[in-house]
Amino acid sequence: MQRTTLVTGASRGLGAAIALEQAAQGNKVAVNYCSSNDAAEQLCARIRLAGGVAMPFQADVRDEAQIDHMIGEIEKALGGVDVLVANATGPQPMLSIEEQTWQAYLDQLEFFVKSPLLLLKRVLPGMRQRSFGRIINIGSEVMELGNPRFANYVAAKGAQLGMTRSWARELGPTGITVNLVAPGWIPVERHAEAAADELEAYRLGVPLGYQGAPLDIAKMVAFLASDEARFLTGQKFSVNGGNTLS
Ligand SMILES: NC(=O)c1ccc[n+]([C@@H]2O[C@H](COP(=O)([O-])OP(=O)(O)OC[C@H]3O[C@@H](n4cnc5c(N)ncnc54)[C@H](OP(=O)(O)O)[C@@H]3O)[C@@H](O)[C@H]2O)c1
After folding, report:
1. Positions in the chain short of pLDDT 70
2. What is the pTM of this model?
3. What is the 129 CA–ligand 1 centroid distance (Å)?
């Protein structure tokens, strides 16, 4: 069955891979972006060239009015959102405790708690009506690792997981599932400048011995979005080569 998937922050990185895979699975894809209009257009053109359906939708997903407008436009163009992938992220500054401010925490909470909440509230009535919905939050392994100088980001990712579990329990009876995919360090465009020794140190800690690719995340999301995943909810799926085995 062809469904409509909204992927936030899909102009590049993991979001772009998730959008491509959703289209490959036969879903119509709403490619959200904030400022990278050309990249979003190019991704949609690539999907259409391969026979898929995709359209770009601009919105700052931290803003309720912009979300409301965007979902309205998606509904008109592609139908109601069946699969919501909350993936967008802004800058993720690494800061010592001395450097951290409450605002630095709020900046991360805006992306990983506020935005998924506003998005869910906007798509939920339609999902309830159709008795189907897949909410997939993109989390992180940092929750398990407790990376130093990163508590602003780690705290928000932790909150996102708690929220996922609570939503899953609340929405269970409606047929809407809520899960979280926790990627390991998956190099994307923004990691182009990452130091070779940093990449190597990370790789050495991964039981499988290599870093994953965006497609590894996209495949997990595709499974969770599918009918086959109907009995999975409230779970965290670590896609990190076993990096968080303890
Ligand atoms: N890559 C990794 O190693 C990794 C590891 C663990 C978890 N994650 C998680 O995976 C998700 C994606 O990360 P990524 O590495 O793929 O990020 P990325 O490459 O930096 O991409 C971020 C995306 O978010 C969009 N965006 C930024 N601000 C936005 C806003 N206000 N509203 C809507 N879209 C906005 C960007 O589009 P514009 O340019 O148009 O703003 C871009 O498409 C995040 O939740 C991140 O925490 C990533």
Report:
1. 246
2. 0.99
3. 30
Chain segment 142-159, per-residue pLDDT in tens: 999 999 999 999 999 999
Number of neighbours of residue 73 by Cβ within 10 angstroms: 15
Of the CATH numbers 3.30.460.80, 3.20.20.70, 3.40.50.720, 3.40.50.620, which one belongs to the domain with range 4-239? Answer: 3.40.50.720
Percent of the chain at pLDDT exceeding 70: 100
> Ligand 1: residues whose CB is within 6 Å?
8-15, 32-36, 60-62, 87-90, 138, 140, 183, 185-186, 188-190
Per-residue DSSP letters for 129-189?
HHT-EEEEEE--THHHHT-TT-HHHHHHHHHHHHHHHHHHHHHGGGTEEEEEEEE-----G
